[in-house]
Write a structure and sequence with these properties.
- The protein is an all-alpha fold.
- It has 6 helices and no strands.
- The N and C termini lie far apart (43 Å).
Length: 196
């Protein structure tokens, strides 16, 4: 595997893992609250919701669509249907997250039944996201590996490296990196590094 290809795929998978980790923590925190082992920390929870809402929308999805999807469409029609489905899922995320924000706000305001609604919407969002990430990693990336050429991977790796490169100086990069570390540090053990 070329250096650029390996770098691009590595960054994409790392971003998927970070997003998946925050979603898993959201689900786990809700289970701990339901079991009475943890009190709700609304500031932390709002931070996690903001991360899963803003990180994909501002950094991850635009790079996928503008670089990976676009290059793959240029090289083969075999991925067209899958790419259309993935782009449609990117668009559907905002409605799912709006429901989570509504339920979290209602729960914070003490609205009856809002905790159960929040749990249900988080579970549905998690399943939706994991299905989406599996399709990207198990279906799209193999097609990309089979059809993209070295110059494509160079461009894709360069674009995605901007997400992970602190020298790129993007305020968004720094914001999301700091936010992710803050979430991990404030989430109580054993789910994170914070005090239980």
């Amino acid at each position: 595997m070329s250096d650029s290809k390996s770098k691009a795929i590595g960054i994409i998978r790392a971003e998927h893992r970070a997003l998946g980790a925050v979603i898993s923590n959201i689900k786990a925190v809700l289970m701990e609250i339901q079991a009475g082992r943890m009190a709700m920390n609304f500031k932390l929870f709002w931070s996690m919701v903001y991360y899963i809402d803003a990180f994909p929308d501002r950094l991850h999805h635009p790079k996928e669509e503008e670089w990976l999807f676009a290059r793959l469409r240029q090289r083969t029609q075999l991925a067209d249907s899958l790419i259309t489905t993935l782009q449609s899922q990117h668009q559907a995320e905002s409605a799912a997250l709006a429901s989570i924000r509504r339920d979290l706000g209602n729960y914070e305001a003490g609205v009856h039944g809002s905790f159960e609604a929040l749990q249900a919407n988080v579970a549905a969002y998690a399943e939706f996201t994991w299905k989406h990430l599996r399709a990207e990693e198990n279906e799209l990336l193999p097609l990309a590996e089979a059809h993209l050429v070295a110059s494509d991977w160079d461009a894709i790796a360069h674009a995605f490296a901007q997400n992970a490169d602190p020298l790129a100086g993007s305020a968004d990069n720094e914001l999301f990196d700091a936010l992710f570390h803050d979430i991990v540090n404030r989430t109580p053990a054993p789910l994170g590094l914070g005090s239980a």
